[in-house]
Amino acid sequence: MSEMQLNEKNVLYRPLFGPQGWWLLGLSALVVLVLIPIANLVLPQDSVFYVSAYWVTLIGKILCYAIVAMAMDLIWGYCGILSLGHGLFFALGGYGMGMYLMRQIGHEGQYRADLPDFMVFLDWKAFPWQWWNTDHFGWALLLVVAVPGIVAFVFGYFAFRSRIKGVYFSIITQALTFAAMLLFFRNETGFGGNNGFTDFKRILGFSITTPETRISLFVITALILILTLLIGRFVVTSKFGRVLAAIRDAEQRVMFCGYNTLHYKLFIWTLSAVICGVAGALYVTQVGIINPGEMSPANSIEIAIWVAVGGRGTLVGAIVGAGVVNGAKSFFTQAFPEYWLYVLGLLFISVTLFMPQGIVGLINQWRKPNQES
Fold first, then answer.
1. Please, are residues 260 and 266 in contact by the beta-carbon 8 Å criterion?
2. What's 307-360 look like in SS3?
3. Dist. CA 159–CA 273, nearest whole Å
4. Position 14 pLDDT exceeds 70
5. d(Cα 272, Cα 65) in Å, to the nearest integer?
6. Greatest C-alpha distance within the chain
7. What pTM does this model have?
8. Distance (Å, rounded) from C-alpha 365 to C-alpha 346?
9. pLDDT value at position 64?
10. How far is CA 119 from CA 99, 104, 193, 202, in A?
């Protein structure tokens, strides 16, 4: 398959990044990195432009979800691999950071002990092996990246080598996530069981609840989101990305051309899992809790819905979808909590029927006649 053919096949899956896209990215970065911190830390609370801690946390959480959505878009939109288990990698990253945060509580817990409260309650005498060295921030960062990456690499190697794909791959990833959720629910695993980790106090010696720390974590999350977008754009616009698009559209033809598709799929699958782990770590520091519920199959399905709503194969669409769906979720769960699931289902059905290329695809369709005229 020639490079020209690869480019032609990738026409419908280009990132939305012309000059207007860069202006939009710059404006969004200005709002998130400058205006929101100023509105939260500098402006008085009675100002109409004041941004409360609630909104900082909510927007920060949505930014974490946007990172996860881009990770999903890399494998689904550009490689055709639909995962229904990305909630596992997100949660593993969260638990990696959560163990460090639990160690930072020290003697400020309810039982004033060296061990976390849930271990004291269960009559544990020492930390289990997986908690080794978790009182060091550098080791926690390594866990955040390495654990999801290793799990994804091992699982992906055997799955891709066995040529498992399509709906079968989706079902297996969902089963893997469900099995991990059941494992983490057990108290003897040493991860807090049903309650998970919460009641964090400090990070790197700073109180995790102060406005300055909260805004710092918010800004770091926004920077990681921008970095993820730029890395994703670099990957998908390279020759490597064109091969991924070809694998998505005609894997057998790519193999006949001499490409080892296992290596390509395994790399992008592992990279996607690592990105999810980083997003999970950022999520835990801002939301303040991590439990096995984050591994539920429903959460992983929601990630796919974010990408579908925003527009597969665009990267920017993943951000838009995560923002629209989670923004709507925050509104409806407060205003009409009993109807939220119906709204989510209606949204997904509407996108499938009327906007198969998502919101960004619809915008591109509107722009195309104007550009031609």
1. no
2. HHHHCCCCCHHHHHHHHHHHHHHHHHHHHCHHHHHHHHHHHHHHHHHHCCCHHH
3. 15
4. no
5. 13
6. 74
7. 0.92
8. 23
9. 97
10. 12, 15, 10, 19
